[in-house]
Amino acid sequence: MFVVTVTYTVPLPEVDPYRPAHGDWLNDLVAQGLLLAAGRQVPLTGGVYLAASMPAKELDRILATDPYLLNGVAAHHVVEFVPLLVTPGLEGLKAEA
After folding, report:
1. Is-contact 75 64, C-beta < 8 A?
2. Which residues contact 83 (CB under 8 A, 6 or more apart)?
3. What is the DSSP letter of 64?
């Protein structure tokens, strides 16, 4: 599983034109189950995604299609982790021991 942080590399007014395409991109990935959650950072300096377990190269391929990245307005930072403890109801996220 992965936590992806998104950091805007330009002022917000330069990000705004790409927000609709980015939203469509996120909705598609959530619908496919590739992203489990996505949202804005507070304060609004970027976003955070929780990505499903997959090969790291596959996640890299997916992230490379982000309209924010394609238009040079944001950068991604990826942290891979193994969920060992989860709250009730999220057992499906827990790694096999």
Report:
1. no
2. 1, 93, 94, 95
3. T
Give the CA distances from residue 64 to residues 23, 89, 92, in Å, rounded to whole numbers and listed in that order.
15, 32, 27
What is the DSSP secondary structure assignment for residue 71, as one 8-state letter? T
The tens-digit pLDDT sequence of the chain (97 residues) is 999 999 999 999 999 999 999 999 999 999 999 999 999 999 999 999 999 999 999 999 999 999 999 999 999 999 999 988 888 888 878 776 5
Three-state secondary-structure class, residue 12: helix
The CA distance from 63 to 57, in Å, is: 10
Which residues have C-beta within 8 Å of that of residue 63, sequence separation ≥ 6? 4, 69, 76, 78
| Predicted model pTM | 0.90
Q: Of 70, 6, 74, 75, which Cα lies nearest the Cα of 35?
A: 6
